[in-house]
Write a structure and sequence with these properties.
The structure holds 2 protein chains of 2 kinds. Chain A is an alpha+beta fold. Chain A contains 3 helices and 7 strands, in the order αβαββββββα. Classes of the chains: A alpha+beta, B alpha+beta.
């Protein structure tokens, strides 16, 4: 086999692999992108019940109600609020007044049914999306 | 006083690193022996100075010296000693100091063990290694000085993030960094080779052990991190495709590819420029990982509070290392003409396929990790790319990789026949097919894909061992080269990891139940009774501890005691899972919030084969170490006359 033909084989192989990978990636991106919305954005868009997204904001103070495994709370970006229901164990850092990200979909009753509530390692951590959402609502206070 | 000593040592180290990064380079280009010899001394001095600095910080932590700001922010006098020590690297400044320390230690190791290297190559490697060190030392001194004092000193510190107060996480960063930083040596070798304008078998024989060592540590570091996430986050999962996890997976994939392509350079004198490129990429991805973790540009479940200015510095450094490396590569690589010709069906061909697939995997992970960043920059949309994306892309690309993995080692160099190799594996193929069928019909008929993946896991194990058995027909275990044994162990271990992850992901059972003391539920054939919830006192926390009595068929089976710990200093709660394992499955229990009137939320998981994930990873690293002990690769071992073939080619 000449070096030329070897290179041709290599090229075909690489292009083939890349092509398959690109096809996989594109189709997966199409189906599996989860958008992040703040309560204000959710109010602006009409999102169907089958549209999975991430909701981020602050857990409104005094809104958390626990009923066995079912937790209800309200997420706010200080402009609009959305009620959330979640069944499961909340992450250790879930607290009223703290930033939160919940993944799920809106129910037909307008309540966001969370499948997952994300935990953070650090209590001073504010998810960048949440910080941005609050900034956009014009309520951002710089921490010390 | 000790802190000032540490600070001073760090400043001296930067000065020494600057000298080490320049003088030997000049020496190498002029052929001046005295200038080149300086590299060795400087490397040892630099390592010594950073050891002093690191020791000073450790001393401040161990003695709880609260006049040092870093100690105040991350330690507390009531913390157990282990976490006082691990607190040293459990924060930004300390972990960067650890980076610099390991970098300098690797540099010193090259200086000590590299006596057999050609003088110019050694001095260039040491200089490049030291230039990377300059970047990190300057970063430490100018943006993240760990030795800053506070006045007046507070009476006590803020304590370490409770999630980090865990034996698994105490050793996770050092192992991970040994891996990340280990690739800096390979990077330095690659840049030095580009400067020299030549890559030969001797070069590959030097690069491979360093890559292998870095790879082993990285494997262990990733496994430890994943194990930690498994038992501390309490979700029963072991891998979340989180940006921070992906950040460590990408250099691992590139490093694995490098490990394999270096073999081709060594044995066949081919794939040279590709190997050099991989070496640059592997270290760049390590730096990218550090950048992603430290800058907070991506939302991650593992994210810590960050400082954008520091992120910017690391980004600049990353661009310099990657951009500089790639520019030099573009300029000099065309000189690295490969030698040995080969057919597509051959050991070389199989290794190219391996590289192609591993790099595709790394690219997929890179794309999925950075896509949210790009989309944010371009459109302002905030998105997250989660596990479904990676399951749909990463897993299918693994299939051909796993399928070819057992066949490749059976092919000969230069040219080979595919069919005889496949025939030698026919028994392994039948066994794996049977395993997949058993999984499909007997364990779970819902998921054909899981059964198929299970079959692949069996294929990796049986296929690897079969080829070893085949080889043993001609010789004994003793005469088999350690490198071959290491390869077989590592390949079979990959199968163990695959089996563990497939079984855990696809066939676990879980239940979530609100329980009061005395309540009993039945779960997957076990009866689980909540005996009591009690308050217990730890060294720096108070905990609610549940006692779950597990019986099977009326006979006592085990007692699980998950806790919710409230760390008194930070007022933070951390769940402590209870896991009972028999190495075939994990019985996993977490305690949620609750009170006596409503009951407590208890979550139970039965995770089949879960321990295999980490056992497999540990075996894989062990395989790497076995291969590292091969005489051929032993660092500093005298070369036998056989390996001194004149395969070197001068630069054109």
């Amino acid at each position: 086999m000449t070096p030329k033909r070897r290179r041709l084989w290599l090229l075909i192989g690489s292009l083939g692999t890349l092509g398959v990978a690109a096809a996989l990636v594109l189709s997966a991106l199409n189906d599996n992108l989860v958008f992040f919305y703040s309560p204000t954005q959710v109010a602006e868009k009409s999102l169907g019940p089958d549209r999975r997204f991430r909701l981020g904001g602050l857990v409104e103070a005094g809104s958390v109600q626990k009923d066995g495994q079912i937790v209800r709370f309200t997420v706010t970006d200080t402009n609009k609020t959305i009620a959330v229901v979640y069944r499961g164990i909340l992450p250790d850092l879930f607290r009223e007044g703290q930033g939160v990200i919940a993944e799920g979909a809106l129910g037909s009753d307008g309540v966001f049914a969370a499948r997952e509530v994300l935990a953070k390692h650090d209590e001073n951590y504010m998810p960048p999306e949440v910080a941005k959402a609050i900034k956009e609502a014009g309520q951002w206070k710089e921490r010390k | 006083m000790v802190a000032e000593l540490g600070h001073f040592a760090l400043i001296l180290a930067l000065a020494v690193a600057l000298i080490q990064g320049t003088v030997p380079l000049i020496g190498a280009s002029r052929g001046d022996d005295r200038l080149m010899a300086l590299g060795r001394t400087a490397a040892l001095t630099q390592a010594l100075l950073i050891i002093v600095a690191f020791g000073a910080l450790t001393q401040a932590y161990v003695t709880s010296d609260f006049s040092v700001a870093n100690v105040v922010a991350n330690s507390h006098s009531a913390k157990p000693l282990l976490y006082k020590i691990s607190g040293v690297w459990g924060n930004h400044e300390g972990s960067m100091l650890l980076w610099a320390l390991i970098l300098a230690l690797f540099g010193a190791a090259v200086a000590v063990f590299g006596a057999g290297l050609p003088d110019t190559l050694r001095s260039r490697v040491l200089a490049i290694q030291s230039l990377i060190g300059v970047g990190f030392l300057a970063f430490l001194l100018f943006t993240s000085n760990p030795f800053e004092r506070v006045f007046p000193a507070p009476a006590d510190g803020n304590g370490l993030n409770p999630l980090l107060q865990d034996p698994g996480l105490a050793f996770h960063p050092p192992l991970l960094y040994l891996g990340y930083v280990g690739f800096s040596v390979t990077y330095a070798f690659a840049i030095a080779a580009l400067l020299e304008g030549r890559v030969d078998a001797a070069w590959a024989r030097w690069v491979r052990p360093w890559t292998l060592a870095a790879w082993c540590f990285l494997t262990l570091g990733i496994a430890l991190g994943s194990w930690w996430a498994y038992y501390i986050l309490g979700w029963g999962g072991f891998w979340f495709w989180d940006p921070v996890e992906n950040a460590s997976l990408m250099p691992w994939l590139a490093g694995t590819a490098l490990l394999h392509s270096a073999i081709v350079v060594e044995k066949r004198d081919a794939l040279k420029s590709w190997t050099v490129l991989l070496a640059i990429l592997a270290f760049s991805l390590s730096l990218l990982g550090t950048f992603l973790v430290r800058s907070g540009v991506l939302t991650s479940v593992h994210a810590f509070a960050q400082d954008p200015a520091r992120g910017l510095y690391i980004l600049g450094f990353l661009l310099a290392v990657t951009g500089g490396g790639l520019a030099l590569y573009a300029w000099r690589a065309p000189q690295l003409q490969g030698g040995g010709l080969f057919q597509p069906v051959s050991r070389e061909g199989a290794l190219i396929l391996n590289n192609l697939l591993l790099c595709t995997l790394a690219a997929t992970v890179l794309l999925g990790t950075l896509y949210p960043l790009f989309l944010d920059l371009l459109t302002g949309d905030k998105v997250s790319v989660g596990p479904p994306f990676f399951n749909a892309t990463f897993v299918p690309i693994c299939a051909p990789l796993f399928a070819a993995l057992c066949v490749g080692p059976l092919l000969g160099w230069k040219r080979a026949e595919l069919w005889p190799a496949l025939m030698r594996l026919r028994v392994a193929f039948v066994i794996s097919l049977a395993a997949a069928l058993v999984a499909m019909t007997m364990i779970d008929s819902r998921s054909t894909l899981a059964a198929l993946a299970f079959g692949f896991g069996v294929w990796l194990i049986v296929g690897s061992l079969w080829s070893l058995a085949d080889r043993l027909k001609q010789g004994t275990l003793r005469t088999t080269p350690r490198a071959t044994l290491g390869m077989v162990i590592a390949h079979a271990s990959l199968g163990i990891v695959v089996l563990g992850s497939v079984a855990t992901s696809a066939w676990h059972t879980e239940v979530m139940q609100t329980m009061k003391p005395g309540d009993r539920i039945s779960f997957a054939g076990y009866a689980v009774q909540l005996d009591k919830i009690e308050q217990v006192q730890g060294p720096n926390f108070v905990a609610e501890r549940a006692t779950l009595n597990v019986t099977v068929g009326g006979k006592p089976y085990t007692v699980l005691q998950p806790e919710r710990r409230l760390f008194t200093v930070q007022r933070r709660q951390v769940a402590e899972t209870a896991i009972q394992t028999n190495f075939l499955r994990d019985f996993y229990a977490t305690l949620g919030e609750g009170d006596p009137s409503q009951g407590w939320v208890i979550r139970l998981y039965l995770n089949p084969l879960a321990p295999w994930i980490w056992l497999g990873a540990a075996f894989m690293a062990f395989g790497g170490f076995v291969s590292l002990s091969d005489r051929r690769l032993r660092i500093g071992a005298p070369r036998s006359s056989k390996t001194r073939r004149p395969v070197t080619q001068p630069a054109e």
